[in-house]
Design goal:
single chain, 7-stranded parallel β-sheet, alpha/beta, Rossmann fold
Length: 256
């Protein structure tokens, strides 16, 4: 006799911003593996988004790539409209899209500040504002991807760390604003994760001294993998976390 195992997110509609690679791609794949229909948002990497969609559909899941620069209101409006047209009311929003530019104080510029806050903070706020208008009346889950830098605050990260500190605070505020509607709002604060971006920058390359240092001082002896963050997102998206809101989840292997 066969046994059917129900998936945690069956019938749910999820949007993941910045999902063409790295952490966002992992979150999209794992949400889909649990039964969610996933909008794979991308700003410029169409090929990457198409690969993620192909992986999801090839495994029997449902996904659609939608281009939108979520630092722009008109793109956000279109993203939400196309998402609802494809899969109906929204149940899960993952605000993953973001940029980082490290620079010491003397190299901070207004342009860099505006770019990082425009996407990491204002983009997150505006995307959430538009998405919750189309959330399922029964509620749902908003998951903001923050960072350990919001509290670790390494040198040369004044602007980037500032954006993630803002994300942490916004997470707590929105959890109180949206709780009465059954919408939970939480943040994941990853530590160093091995992604295409960190590898191409040389940060997590196998020969990187910085990576070796982190692995030496980590209680678990390694840096993160994208699926470490994706698994946490599945928990926050599902009913397993039905009484969890306004929380910051530090997924950093003990380095916090």
């Amino acid at each position: 006799m066969s046994t059917t195992i129900s998936k945690k997110l069956a019938g749910k509609h999820a949007i993941v911003t910045g999902a063409s690679k790295g952490i966002g791609a992992s979150i999209a794949r794992l949400l889909a593996a649990e039964g969610a229909s996933v909008i794979v948002n991308y700003a410029s990497s169409r090929d990457g988004a198409d690969r993620v969609v192909a992986e999801i559909t090839g495994a029997g899941g449902k996904a659609l790539a939608v281009q939108a620069d979520v630092s722009k209101q008109e793109d956000i409006t279109r993203l939400i409209a196309e998402s609802v047209a494809a899969y109906g009311p929204i149940d899960i929003l993952v605000n993953n899209a973001g940029i980082y530019q490290m620079a010491p104080l003397e190299e901070v510029t207004a342009e860099s500040f505006q770019q990082q806050f425009g996407l990491n903070v204002l983009g997150l706020l505006l995307t959430t504002k538009e998405a919750v208008k189309q959330f399922n009346p029964t509620g749902g889950s908003v998951i903001n991807i923050s960072s350990v830098v919001s509290t670790y605050a390494p040198p040369g990260s004044s602007v980037y760390s500032g954006t993630k500190g803002a994300v942490d605070t916004i997470t707590r505020v929105l959890s109180k604003e949206l709780g009465a509607r059954g919408i939970r709002v939480n943040a994941i604060n990853p530590g160093m994760v091995d992604t295409e971006g960190t590898r191409s920058a040389g940060i997590t390359a196998d020969e990187s001294e910085f990576r070796k240092h982190l692995e030496t001082i980590s209680p678990l002896g390694r840096i993160g993998r994208p699926d470490d963050i994706g698994s946490a997102a599945v928990f926050l998206a599902s009913d397993d976390s039905s009484w969890v809101t306004g929380e910051l989840f530090y997924i950093a292997g003990g380095l916090h």
